[in-house]
Amino acid sequence: MINLKKLLVVGFLAGTVIALPFINRTVFGTNAKEVNVSVISQRIISPSILASGFLAHEEEVMLSSEVIGKVSELFVEEGDRVETGDLVLRVDDKNFLAGLEQSEAAVRINTIDIERQEVRIDNLERQYERSKSLYEQNLIGAEEYEALLNQLELARIDFLSSQERLAQSEAQLDQVLDQLSKTQIISPIDGVITSLDIKVGETAIASSTNIPGSSLMTIANPASIYTEVLVDEADIANVEVGQRAEIVAIAYPDQPMQGVVRFIANTAKVAQGRTGLSFVVKIDITDPGDVVLRPGMSCRAEIFTRQDQRVAAVPIEAVIFEEDRAELRSEYFIFINDDGVARKTKVDVGLSDDEYQELVSAVDGDIEIVIGPNQELRHLLDGDRLDATLIEEE
Amino acid sequence: MTDIDKLQKHKTEPAGMINTAINIITSPAEAFAEIQERPTKIFPMTVVLFSMMLVMLWYYNIVDFDWFIDDAMRLSNISEVQMEQAREQMGSMSQATFTAVGILGSTVFLVVLWILQAGYLSLASALNGDQFRFTNWFSLVVWTALPYLLSTVGMAVTIMLSPNGQLSAFDLNPLTLRNLGIATSIDSLNRVFSQLDLTIIWGITLTVMAYKQWLQSSWPKACGIVLAPYLLFIGVWTYFALT
After folding, report:
1. What ipTM was predicted for this assembly?
2. Which residues neighbour A205 within 8 Å (Cβ) at sequence distance 6 or greater?
């Protein structure tokens, strides 16, 4: 038989254990969640897209030689400022000067030859006039007369031939002069020597391919520096000429520069190192700050795709997104602090940037919204008790 | 049927087992005599393990699994990035798998602990030259674990009162020293308080009493032999905690 007294003891112990959680709950209550709250504020939401690229000069020329020859003189150094028409480099012109003398001599020879032809024609014309008169008086025979006529016609043909030779030698002279002029490299723009790729004694090569000697130097106008970025085709619809942009050169990560979108390419291309299509977007740098701009610098640009406006906004982490794919439903919620109790409230949202989300729904500006910490917020439920700390947003 | 046979039959009947179970709580001396006479194991093992598994199964079913992972991670004082990685790793395990691993792990751990305790006491007996063997000590160890049933009852009530499944494993047992309001400024000690509950202390005390009764030994000897492994464990733990 089980002793009743013992059963009562066991019952008492079990009852005490059962009562403990109730006592705990009554005395201490359920644990309130420690959260940060904030009131809704008016903020500037600046939705943006990110793109990467590099700095480049709009006015930039790469000089190359049209003649082959050793560089005899170099009049500039990298970084020198030059103006349009300045002589910057001279290729050795000895061969071209010799060719010039040869061509000039050929012109002179041909000129003399023409003079000789003219004298000969004059002489033959006089002989022809005399023999014609004698032939008409039957003092000479037809054979002699026709031979003289033939000599005159041949002399005239020779004269025409000499004239063509003179024209040919003059053309050759022009060609040599042109070649000679190309031994002098002239700056076509005002700018700065940004790259000097050849030295005195090296051979300049007339070539379009990128082999040593084919490029002499690069001259660029430093005032024409701009940013060229590649914008993904999915984002290009939001980009417009005139939009504000913030450019950060990799070398100056803490010094953003201000810029304005100037150009959007018409055609998308697959850029080197990328798989998807992207559009070239050019951004003028309006305020470089203290950044020393150098072409070729890598940079990233944040293009702000909407004009800055003040709207009701909450920190982006305060907005909870819920999606039900089966019912094709997606909704946004925020948690409101209702006298120490969390109330889950459905809201409509607008644009967002990295930090804030626009609230389109009409929400009373004085109410407190739970904004963190994330560890509590991600598991917060409607009706949870809150131990709220008000955070003053800047 | 002799009187002794009747007694043996009575002890192995369910009513006899329940009587021993009640005696373990209300009059341990009687229970120890019964266990000495008939060292049964299956009944107390089944009751303790089954109740523990049942409560754990219930807990893992109602707990908000994502919250549970975050709660477990939060106590490990790791960075947000590490927490995210750990969250992903734990999140890759389904709640059912986690439940199965948790229940199986706890069960195996408890059984191994009992075997170690019984093994230690039987070793002490062998050195002492007394008549008690592993089977006697194992039976005693599982019977003295019976007060743990009170903890499982407390856990069940706590689960019932949880409104939203966000119930920490550390808040589950109302009989842990931590949940009874015992706390210190030392974190590592607080962690022990959150694992140690009154029924464990009760069980150890019962083992000391049983040892004294079975071997007619003095209190200091019984305490010394039974508590030696615990004192050794606490010493080693204290050494590492302080250094």
Report:
1. 0.84
2. A65, A68, A211, A212, A213, A214
